[in-house]
Amino acid sequence: MPRTRTTDPSHATEKAARPPVAAPPPPMPRRAPRKVRLWRKLTPWLFLAAPLALLIAFTYAPVANMLAYSFTDWDGVSPELRYTGPDNYIEIFTRPELFQVFFVSGYYLAASALQIGVALYFATILSFDLRFRNLFKGVLFFPYLINGVAIGFVFLYFFQDGGTLDSLLALLGHESDRAWLGTSTSANISLSGVSVWRYTGLNFVLFLGAIQSIPGELYEAAELDGANRWHQFRYIIAPGIRPVLSLSVILSISGSLSVFEIPYIMTGGATGTETFVIQTVKLAFQFNKTGLASAAAVVLLLIILAVTWLQRRLVPDDRADLV
Amino acid sequence: MTTLTIPTPVIRRRVARTLTYLSLVGASVVVLLPLLVVLLTSLKTEEQMADDSGALTLPDNPLNLANYATAFRDGEMLAAFGNTAFILAFAITGTVLIGSMAAYAIDRFTFRFRKLVVALFLVATLVPGVTTQVATFQIVDSFGMFDTLWAPIALYTGTDIVSIYIFLQFVRSIPISLDESARLDGANAFTIYRKIIFPLLKPAVATVVIVKGITVYNDFYIPFLYMPSDDLGVISTSLFRFKGPFGAHWETISAGAVLVILPTLIVFLALQRFIYNGFTRGATK
After folding, report:
1. pLDDT band at B4 (very low <50, low <70, confident <90, very high)
2. Kindly report the CA angle at A232 between A229 and A236, in degrees rounded to 5?
3. What is the 3-state secondary structure (H, E, C) of chain A?
4. For a Cys staple, B218 with which of A119, A147, B87, B211, CB 3.0–4.6 Å?
5. CB contact under 8 A, B98 and A155
């Protein structure tokens, strides 16, 4: 683009106006003509038009609509919808089979705790000098990058009758003859195990990044004072990565509540592995109960917002906030 | 005996080191074994799958690629990769443009309602996409985008608030004096954005491209809900459809899974360092 644009009057005037007043730096440029001022006012909005339109269309409008639908009996297709008041909400909390899906989240919540612990352990030992460090780093992180459907199939075969797990146990001299995904408890444990396999790497990399941002002199000083690895972890690493740790906890809780992919791909929600999101998707898109599904979604959203709020209160975020 | 002369702290340290390595090797086995078995399975013939030799046996012919041919052809993986590439190209370009423009406007201008705009973006991060999907569906449908490739493109581009923050972080680190001197040279806001800000955002663009690329490539939920047509399969949904026709043909399903994982592995090996950085940045902002 040429440096001076004759088509744009604002800069031409600015340029022409500058030399006479340039000698002592003026605090304010001379008042520009009205058209120019209007143009200037508009500029940020031109940049923001597309982002804001998308933000409103795909985040705020859906949230508003969802709230509205949740008080109706709409089926998602018919033009008429009837206002039913809080009926949908009452239904969710009084029909045990609808509420039950929250207990499935318990398995994933327990799995998250395990996952954070394991990630923390490996992040700590791999932040010290070890042979093949980068190799181990890569191996631990890689599952996070794998396609969810592929993971679903890998582990369907893993738990398959005569699949990976059974063959492995046979190799160790233990002939097992059980359907791993056959009962509700073992299926949920198996599935949440898959989520540990899949997500530990992300937590691990986040922790590793945080640990590496702790200045190295701290460890040296601590070592001179006779601190061992546990002391270093307890007094240097743990406080140093607290913000990331609390972020992981939050992500784990909201993640545990909104599990969808792995159980949907592996069991389709059968044998008691149905999660909240699977149920909502089924209600909305199979049974055409958009109103009820919306109410369910509002409940989930409120729970997640409450958890986030609680976490912010308990662990105040000391990073400077945005803007 | 020499062992007697080794002082206890040294032994202790050696034991600790051994245990550390053992735990790392154990974790690696846990991670890699399920994947390796699927790779082995993908190279087996139907007969070998049927002979009850177990999942851990080696394939008779390690160069048997017949299952890959089947998966690729009958699973319509070529179309799936094509659709995925199309969505990736548009969604990533859109995200980069939208994110950098929003960040530039928010950081470089003072205008009325600026605080409100910032708050709108901030609050939006708290709303998890899965919760609003039922209502989002109606909106996408009303735009006539349902069952087109544009539905996922619009959703990936429009709901990515994290990348706006990544860009914002970078725009803030670019000295304002650069903008000012360009303005003195007669550049207007668009020129400044295009010629000064955007080129300096390269590291942020790399981060966003990587994080976004991996998310879009792997996403199942959005294409599954919004593009039910057979010819609109992306790699996740096409692979998911293997469940039907290939039923218990684990050798074909495994080949399909390996086909989908392989590009990720190659990209990961090539860009390791950037990927780690990208995810640390993408998740903590």
Report:
1. low
2. 160
3. CCCCCCCCHHHHHHHHHHHHHCCCCCCCCCCCCHHHHHHHHHHHHHHHHHHHHHHHHHHHHHHHHHHHHCCECCCCCCCCCCECCCHHHHHHHHCHHHHCHHHHHHHHHHHHHHHHHHHHHHHHHHCCCCCCHHHHHHHHHHHHHCCHHHHHHHHHHHHCCCCHHHHHHHHCCCCCCCCCCCCHHHHHHHHHHHHHHHHHHHHHHHHHHHHHCCCHHHHHHHHHCCCCHHHHHHHHHHHHCHHHHHHHHHHHHHHHHCCCHHHHHHCCCCCCCCCHHHHHHHHHHCCCCHHHHHHHHHHHHHHHHHHHHHHHHHCCCCCCCCC
4. A147
5. no
C-alpha B131/C-alpha A302 separation (Å) is 10
Of B69, B6, B9, the C-alpha closest to B42 is B69
Q: What are A92-122's pLDDT values in tens digits?
A: 888 888 888 888 999 999 999 999 999 999 9
Task: Nearest by CB to B56, from A51, A147, A168: name it.
Answer: A168
A150, A209, A281 member nearest B280 (Cβ): A209
What ipTM does this complex have? Answer: 0.90
CA B117 to chain centre: 28
Q: Which residues of A touch B283 (CB under 8 A)?
A: 202, 206, 247, 251
